[in-house]
From TrEMBL:
Gene3D superfamilies tied to this protein: 1.10.150.130, Intergrase catalytic core
GO molecular function, one term: DNA binding
Protein name per its UniProtKB record: Tyrosine-type recombinase/integrase
Organism: Halorubrum rutilum
Domain of life: Archaea
A GO biological process held by the record: DNA integration
Annotated ranges, domain Core-binding (CB): 7-94
Keywords: DNA integration, DNA recombination, DNA-binding
Length: 339
């Protein structure tokens, strides 16, 4: 303890975030800050720990048990993600003499079976069709209509949708150009490796043309660029695509009966700002996962989906492909029958 330098939990988190700022994407940084925020809250309010020099293996285990059940029981995969991030955080604190040496080795994380380490929430083709049909009828060429259409038909990550400029849309070639431009606040997940052209259908191009001609605000962002999916204030915020998906994936939002028989007049999740609380709503990533599964189920080759969605085949198979094994077999059969 004599060799350690005192540090408060919130100060340690700020130091860690600043240290990782140049190493990871902004989305990863936000995720780490959110996960470790639970640990800081536990230190300050549950244990009244004001100096992380006091941390022990037993206290770290107590946090694990608290995190597992305090805000409602979390899934094993969520617990593993939380504890793995905590281990990285503690390992960093070891390097700056804030905690005891080798304390990170005492951060326990659950071992998961292969099927436990994947998430299965996704937008189904039926849900996507219902949402896009409703938007096409009542909110045609709106910002929400364009964002959801692009995410479903191109399998783009939400960050890639945000990066697009007017000049990245090539109507004559019916394509979008995905580019990594971190110097003007629009990085993409896989950086230069993620740069590519994405083909568009005539229907998607017609929608983009109508958005640009009739709905898109004529604005530039703070760097003088013209965002394709603009807001009256410039480029949309990084979380806007997710907010849009949460909002429009609620059944009541598109005029469907609530599966839980809730009254929209009394349901908190029926309010736009609380859309994510709806058990039936899904995240932006669930749209991407559902779109990838839909493309694979429609006999689009894995190599094509991998290149279009910018995800390597192994990751695609483990985290995105939700086809059952019998469906995969029947699809393979079509290629083998004539051999």
């Amino acid at each position: 303890m004599d060799d350690l330098e005192p540090i408060a939990p919130d100060e340690a988190l700020a130091l860690y975030i600043d240290h990782r700022r140049r190493e990871v994407a902004k989305s990863t940084l936000r995720s780490h800050k959110s996960r470790l925020g639970h640990f800081v809250r536990w230190c300050e309010h549950e244990k009244e720990i004001t100096n992380l020099n006091e941390l022990t293996g037993r206290l770290l285990h107590e946090f694990r048990l608290w995190r597992r059940s305090h805000d409602g029981e979390i899934k094993p995969v969520t617990e593993k993600t939380q504890m793995d991030t905590l281990r990285v955080f503690i390992r960093f604190l070891e390097t700056v003499d804030a905690v005891k040496p080798d304390l990170s080795e005492k951060v326990l994380s659950p071992d998961l079976d292969a099927d436990e380490n994947v998430r299965d929430d996704r937008l189904t083709p039926e849900q996507a069709e219902a949402i896009l049909t409703h938007l096409g009828k009542y909110e045609y060429a709106s910002r929400a209509h364009v964002v959801l259409t692009l995410q479903w038909h191109t399998m783009l990550r939400r960050g890639a949708v945000r990066t697009l400029d007017l000049s990245d849309y090539h109507p004559d070639d019916q394509s979008l150009e995905i580019r990594h431009r971190p110097e003007t606040d629009t990085p993409i997940k896989n950086k230069m490796v993620g740069e590519r052209f994405v083909a568009l259908s005539s229907e998607v191009c017609a929608l983009l043309d109508d958005w640009i001609d009739n709905q898109r605000p004529d604005v530039v962002d703070e760097f003088g660029r013209e965002p394709l999916i603009a807001t009256p204030h410039g480029r949309m915020h990084a979380t806007t695509p997710t907010t849009i998906v949460y909002n429009w994936s609620r059944p009541c939002r598109i005029g469907l009966q609530c599966p839980l028989n809730r009254d929209p007049e009394e349901c908190e999740a029926a309010e736009y700002v609380h859309a994510s609380k709806c058990p039936e709503s899904v995240s932006s990533h669930a749209v991407r996962r559902g779109a990838i599964t839909h493309h694979l189920s429609s006999d689009v080759p894995v190599e094509v989906v991998s290149a279009r969605a910018n995800v390597n085949p192994d990751t695609l198979d483990k985290h995105y492909d939700r086809r059952d094994e019998k469906t995969k077999m029947e699809q393979r059969r079509k290629y083998l029958n004539n051999i």
